[in-house]
């Protein structure tokens, strides 16, 4: 209880009432927004669902994503000759892996893969990676892009010219090709390096959008006023320009997460993602070898990618719509 | 004692047929060439060697089959085979003397003749190739009478000149000296094979070799797939750019010539019109699409569309299913992969303490790896793989040795004790690299390997990242700066492992990357090489293996050899040890069959229902 509430019960009751009122208003606005933008609401629900899975992965994935389920093999013959093993592979090992188990069993809700690993556990584990990579790359891209875009747009002139040519150069390359190039140069793509590579790709987009907003805001009267009062460039950028381009930054951030998740899945599918982690893209690739016989691994992990990307994209679009008065209500 | 190879005995006793299958062999498989065309070979450098290449499908043979297709059908001349070259794109040199990987040996097995060759790769029986006949009174002196009329492929460099004894003299003396034409030293893979050999050429068709000591396996070594005799003029011209692939660097004397050998392009072999063995090869040529090996799905699609004649999936159950769905048009072969799977630890760096090496040798779960990567199709191998059954430690004895015991709990317990005693936890991160050619087929290796060691040793310090033979491993072997890795090592190339053991573990061996210097081991290896009596040689090799196994193979730990299940279209005939019968798999040779077998037994049958106009219209252009 706060001091005010302790000292004045009436005031405390008023505060509680005010809080409830604000909460109800927020809820009402949320519902209105959801009603106004049903797809966006669906996207937000998906995002919340995926974030929840990522957050609680260790508690809900049931098994370790690398655990190989096996069954003891009473027919194991350690001295079996290779000829007999070729005829009957089961006699060559003290256990057999529970490979390609079908989904919807109580033990393996989504079945197992070719190495006897639980697909459900791997999808859940992959969700965490997808969120870390998507959000991490987006944060990296937005922070660096905002900083550079802010400076470029604010100071303009030759610095802006140079910066934009660099951005042009980055954007001139097809995204995935550039990404593959970066990751290949890195040699061994770890999780951190993958985030950096994806973030670098998004950096150019962030710079472009932020710089565009900064150019507009910089011409505003309040910026001129601040300058006439003797405010320094840094203060103007941080106190007056940046707050007014944050909406753009937020939009870039939210919309790009899905793209990063998709890009990472592409990299992993091609064997260029973080090799020591379980990722959805890697699962799609792993399962495709036997797609016609055992489609579950690829189909399930592919569906996870689809839902995640769809969710973040729809949610991002909704945020953009809400923050842009021109689009609100359309 | 029956001296024949295990697989041969099985085949000849009919047991194979009864049990349907086949076996064997390997690897030859695969690799080598696919349809036999490349013929491949074996290699012998031992298990512990460094470089290697995979073999995953293929097999030298492609056979034919269905119950409808008669194995004994008349051979048809002409046509172009298409198959995947094992190891795909992993060539490290056009100089067969200097290449550290097997692939160049496999490829040149079809292009370069050898002094002698295996008439039966499994049993090790020899026949003349460049040599028409030979005499060896005491395993010290070898006198070869060369075949007359053998011509080099006609190129601006060779001008189609005749092959003479001077070519063999250069071939041996260059490797023995380890020097390039300008006198600079270079790494020659088989240098120690030729150390101290005196070469005399009384005339153009006679070569007399005098070895410093008797060597019972010398002749077999000259039949190995990497033992082709290259052309001096071309080899010396391209010495400075030997890492760059070009067909011009390898003029041939054998059944095929290289029409195209360029990075990124299909490897094209063309029938050599001047080949001394008239009438062969049966085929006009063969095309090995570049890079298909690295993409299992593209490989499968290519097979199903008959763009290649044989195929093997990393998942053997899938291969089985595809064959079952196409019973009337394709058949199954089972071949043991001669490319031994190896874990190589750097004993000069992290694994200096022998206790750590021993701990790793017990922590690695050989049988689990066979299950995970090969669906159980394989068997653990000691330092001499089971493919060389005559010399290998018997299974009953092998399973009593650390690293091979069936009591996994005991292995783990002892491994943990050794790991702790050797200061393993203080090593920090330990990276057991997955080699790219392997991980392209089994990309989950990175996760599985790290977890296997972490679980076994009760730590969280192992990981597995990517390495390549050509960039990370081969250039660093001699310097002792190579990473730890797991993948294929060089292929077994003959039934006799003695020279390979010498090369790898003798203090004077040219591929003794672990720098093993054990006088007792040296003595046994020396004695085994000069032993003319095979029984005595086997006994000596067993004694040597005991030392090696007691020392966890000095970090070059052989894990296992596996068996590849391949699917082949019925029209594609190639060397098989046993032909398929209705509902029964064919057996391939376990070590690369040898190009000449492919010449003689590979052909395309236009009368087979699986043969199409598209296959008929294949050209080498």
Annotation keywords:
heterodimer, A: 330 residues, mainly alpha, MetI-like fold, 2 domains, two-stranded antiparallel sheet, 13 helices, 2 strands, 2% strand, B: 621 residues, alpha+beta, Dipeptide-binding Protein, domain 3, Dipeptide-binding Protein, domain 1, 10-stranded mixed β-sheet, 4-stranded mixed β-sheet, 21 helices, 22 strands, globular, disordered N terminus
What Rg of chain B is obtained from the alpha carbons, in whole angstroms? 23 Å
Strand order of the largest sheet of chain A: 1-2
CATH homologous superfamily heading of the domain at 3-29 and 337-562 in chain B:
Dipeptide-binding Protein, Domain 3
Q: Average pLDDT across residues of chain B?
A: 84
Q: Return the structural class of chain A.
A: mainly alpha
Give me the CATH architecture of the largest domain in chain A, please.
Orthogonal Bundle
Largest sheet of chain A: 2 strands, antiparallel
User: Number of DSSP helices of chain A?
Assistant: 13
The percent range for strand residues of chain B is: 15-25%
Named CATH topology of the largest domain in chain A? MetI-like fold
Helix-residue proportion of chain A: over 70%
The total strand number of chain B stands at: 22
What's the alpha carbon Rg of chain A, rounded to whole Å?
26 Å
Give the overall silhouette of chain A.
globular
What is the total domain count of chain A? 2
In angstroms, what separates the terminal alpha carbons of chain B? 52 Å
In short:
Chain A is mainly alpha-helical. Chain A has 13 helices and two strands. Chain A is globular and about 90 Å long.
């Amino acid at each position: 209880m706060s001091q005010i509430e302790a000292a004045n019960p009436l005031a405390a009751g008023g505060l509680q009432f005010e809080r409830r009122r604000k909460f109800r208003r927020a809820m009402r606005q949320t519902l209105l927004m959801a009603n106004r933008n049903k797809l966006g609401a669906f996207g937000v629900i998906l995002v919340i669902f995926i974030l929840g899975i990522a957050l609680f992965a260790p508690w809900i994935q049931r098994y370790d994503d690398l655990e190989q389920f096996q069954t003891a093999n009473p027919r194991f013959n350690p001295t079996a000759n290779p000829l007999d093993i070729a005829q009957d592979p089961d006699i060559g090992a003290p256990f057999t892996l529970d490979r390609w188990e079908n989904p919807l069993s109580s033990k393996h809700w989504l079945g197992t893969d070719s190495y006897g690993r639980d697909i459900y556990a791997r999808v859940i584990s992959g969700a965490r990676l997808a969120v870390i990579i998507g959000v991490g790359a987006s944060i990296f891209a937005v922070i660096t892009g905002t900083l550079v875009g802010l400076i470029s747009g604010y100071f303009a002139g030759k610095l802006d010219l140079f910066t934009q040519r660099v951005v042009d150069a980055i954007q001139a390359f097809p995204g995935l090709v550039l990404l593959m190039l970066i990751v290949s140069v890195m040699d061994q793509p770890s999780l951190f390096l993958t985030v950096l590579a994806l973030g670098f790709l998004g950096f150019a987009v962030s710079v472009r959008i932020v710089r565009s907003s900064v150019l507009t805001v910089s011409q505003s009267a309040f910026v001129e006023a601040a300058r006439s009062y003797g405010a320094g460039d840094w203060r103007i950028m941080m106190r007056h320009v940046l707050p007014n381009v944050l909406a753009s930054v937020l939009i870039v951030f939210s919309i790009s997460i899905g793209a990063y998740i998709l890009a990472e899945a592409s990299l992993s599918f091609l064997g260029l993602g973080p090799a020591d982690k379980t990722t959805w893209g890697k699962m799609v690739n792993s399962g495709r070898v036997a797609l016609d016989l055992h489609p579950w691994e690829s189909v399930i992990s592919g569906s996870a990618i689809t839902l995640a990307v769809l969710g973040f994209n729809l949610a991002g679009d909704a945020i953009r719509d809400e923050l842009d008065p021109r689009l609100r209500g359309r | 004692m029956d001296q024949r190879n295990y697989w041969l005995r099985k085949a000849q006793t009919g047991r194979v047929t009864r049990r349907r299958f086949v076996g064997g062999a390997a690897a030859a498989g695969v690799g080598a060439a696919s349809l036999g065309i490349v013929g491949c070979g074996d290699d012998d450098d031992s298990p512990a060697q460094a470089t290697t290449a995979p073999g995953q499908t293929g097999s030298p043979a492609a056979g034919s089959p269905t119950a409808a297709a008669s194995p004994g059908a008349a051979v048809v001349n002409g046509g172009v085979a298409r198959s995947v070259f094992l190891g795909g794109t992993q060539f490290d040199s056009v100089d067969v003397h200097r290449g550290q990987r097997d692939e160049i040996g496999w490829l040149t097995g079809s292009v370069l003749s050898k002094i002698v060759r295996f008439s039966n790769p499994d049993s090790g029986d020899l026949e003349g190739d460049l040599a028409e006949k030979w005499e060896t009174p005491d395993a010290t002196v070898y006198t070869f009478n060369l075949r007359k009329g053998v011509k080099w492929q006609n190129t601006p460099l060779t001008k189609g000149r005749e092959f003479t004894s001077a070519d063999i003299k250069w071939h041996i003396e260059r490797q023995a000296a380890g020097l390039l034409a300008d006198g600079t030293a270079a790494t020659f893979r088989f240098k120690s094979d030729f150390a101290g050999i005196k070469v005399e050429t009384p005339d153009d068709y006679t070569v007399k070799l005098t070895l410093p000591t008797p060597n019972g396996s010398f002749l077999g070594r000259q039949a190995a797939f990497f033992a082709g005799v290259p052309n001096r003029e071309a080899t010396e011209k391209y010495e400075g750019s030997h890492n760059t692939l070009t067909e011009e660097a390898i003029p041939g004397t054998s059944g095929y010539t290289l029409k195209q050998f360029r990075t990124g392009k299909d490897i094209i072999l063309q029938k050599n019109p001047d080949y001394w063995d008239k009438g062969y090869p049966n085929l006009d040529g063969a095309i090995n699409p570049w890079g298909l090996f690295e993409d299992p799905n593209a490989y499968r699609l290519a097979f199903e569309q008959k763009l290649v004649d044989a195929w093997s999936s990393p998942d053997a159950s899938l291969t089985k299913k595809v064959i079952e769905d196409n019973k009337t048009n394709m058949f199954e072969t089972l071949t043991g992969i001669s490319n031994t799977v190896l874990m190589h630890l750097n004993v000069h760096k992290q694994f200096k303490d022998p206790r750590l090496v021993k701990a790793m040798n017990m922590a690695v779960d050989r049988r689990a790896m066979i299950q995970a990567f090969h669906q159980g199709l394989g068997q653990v191998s000691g330092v001499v793989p089971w493919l060389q059954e005559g010399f290998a430690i018997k299974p009953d004895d092998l399973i009593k040795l650390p690293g091979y015991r069936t009591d996994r709990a005991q292995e783990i317990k002892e491994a943990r004790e050794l790991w702790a005693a050797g200061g393993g936890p203080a090593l920090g991160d330990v990276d057991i690299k997955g080699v790219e050619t392997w991980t392209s087929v089994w990309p989950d290796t990175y996760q599985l390997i790290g977890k296997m060691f972490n679980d076994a040793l009760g730590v969280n310090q192992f990981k597995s990242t990517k390495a390549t033979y050509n960039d990370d491993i081969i250039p660093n072997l001699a310097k002792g700066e190579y990473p730890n890795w797991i993948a294929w090592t060089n292929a077994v190339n003959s039934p006799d492992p003695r020279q390979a053991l010498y090369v790898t573990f003798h203090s004077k061996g040219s591929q003794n990357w672990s720098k093993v210097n054990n006088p007792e081991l040296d003595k046994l290896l020396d004695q085994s090489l000069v032993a003319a009596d095979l029984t005595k040689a086997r006994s000596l090799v067993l004694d040597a293996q005991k030392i090696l196994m007691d020392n966890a193979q000095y970090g070059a730990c052989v894990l296992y050899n596996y068996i590849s299940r391949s699917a082949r279209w019925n029209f594609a005939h190639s060397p098989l040890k046993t032909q398929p019968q209705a509902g029964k798999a064919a057996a391939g040779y376990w070590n690369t069959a040898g190009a000449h077998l492919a010449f003689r037994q590979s052909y395309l049958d236009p009368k087979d229902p699986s043969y199409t106009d598209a296959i008929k219209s294949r050209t080498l252009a």
